[in-house]
What we know:
The chain is mainly beta and 294 residues long. Helix content is 2%, strand content 51%.
Amino acid sequence: MSEPPSPFRCVLDARASLGEGPVWSLVERVLYWIDINAPSLNRFDPVSARNTVMNLPESIGCFALCRSGGFIAALRSGIWRLDRNGAKQAKIADAPYDPATHRYNDGRCDPQGRFWAGSMNEARKGATASLTRLGYDAKLTHMVQGVTISNGLAWSPDGRTMYHADTPTQTVHAYDFDPGSGSISSRRVLVEFKAPDDRPDGATVDSEGCYWVALYNAGAVVRIAPDGRVVSRHALPAKCPTMCAFGGDDLTTLYVTTARQKLSEHELQRHPCSGGLFAMQVDVPGLPEPFFAG
């Protein structure tokens, strides 16, 4: 039996090893994204379909745009400022782990412009990673510990709820979030996935407060209501979607990065655009991505 057609189209056949972290720039009208393994930071212009690659000297887990220009990025060695071309400018904080066994993974800015970055145990040997917050004072604080692969970080439209996932547990948690202090409390389960391939990866939230999360290995993204109900499920022509982001002038284009790493020849023949950048139109727009305030 043939699979139903996917609502997604491949807008960039990047063949990235581990495409991740899409961030839409409303100012430039382009999508920035990373290939963690290349490693590289990329700038995709959907009008010209041109992708500009900025090679990096070490793996990059996540990044955010700075209001003054350039980027803040969580690299394997720590958190750095990068210039507009992706070159290192200054180190802000050392990595809070052993770089031989851990690296940074998913992260972004909260609505107030603090930079949050989660890490992962690359060998998946224990919950030894964490989610950290870089405050306005450039101090790095552990906010969630006992994590294996930090993922799924996002905030509700009113900025009062934070979402976070530890991928191997197949569970997304919600927290009460204090915008003034950046503190979190009252951890609770938003959704727990049961199918073995439904592994929550990167996520975003739309203007109605629904949480969109990529399910690594399941070839799908799901939209989840604030009460934890799965509202819709959308298949991709790629087995390993990694993260979602809203883009376009009206933020109604849902972009999804994907991975190519570790796929068999059979899987690559079945999904030849794995590692590409995909997009589909949605009815409910997303939210502008916050700038780094530091």
